[in-house]
Amino acid sequence: MNNLLLVSHGNFCTELKASAEMIMGEQENIYTVPLLAEEGEKEFLEKFEKITESVENFIVFSDLLGGTPCNILSKKIMNGASFELYAGMNLPMVISFVNANLLGSQSDFVAEAKESTVKVNELLAADAFDDEDE
Fold first, then answer.
1. How far apart are alpha carbons 15 and 67 in whole angstroms?
2. In the chain, fewer beta carbons within 10 Å around the N or the C end?
3. What pairing do the DSSP bridges indicate for beta strands 30-35 and 3-9?
4. Alpha-carbon Rg of the chain, whole angstroms?
5. Do the strands 58-62 and 3-9 form a parallel or antiparallel pair, or are they unpaired?
6. E strands within the chain?
7. pLDDT string in tens for the chain (134-residue length)
8. CATH of domain 3-131
9. What are the structural domain ranges in the chain?
């Protein structure tokens, strides 16, 4: 089973995990590492490394490309660390991770993120247009 680490500015990662659990049930293999306002790189890295010392086979979702949590972990990768790091995390990506783990399959998290971003008004308008045609 793969593990997932969510990292973010503030408690976004913790709340994202809670939202995923609301839909998918408790997730024991999802960990969170928030960068709190009063913390710096050192404190964030200590929390990250404490978790990853005991967790194998993990990937990381970060909230923002170019944001501090993503930049800190990018430096780790550039210095030899080996893990997959994705930026732009959202709830569909986390749900996709959970489903892939349940099914023992792979998921394209980038594609999931792109496919789940839609303008609902356009979908509704398309359905309304179809109804008028029938």
1. 18
2. C
3. parallel
4. 17
5. parallel
6. 3-9, 30-35, 58-62, 84-87
7. 699 999 999 999 999 999 999 999 999 999 999 999 999 999 999 999 999 999 999 999 999 999 999 999 999 999 999 999 999 999 999 999 999 999 999 889 899 888 888 999 998 998 765 555 55
8. 3.40.50.510
9. 3-131
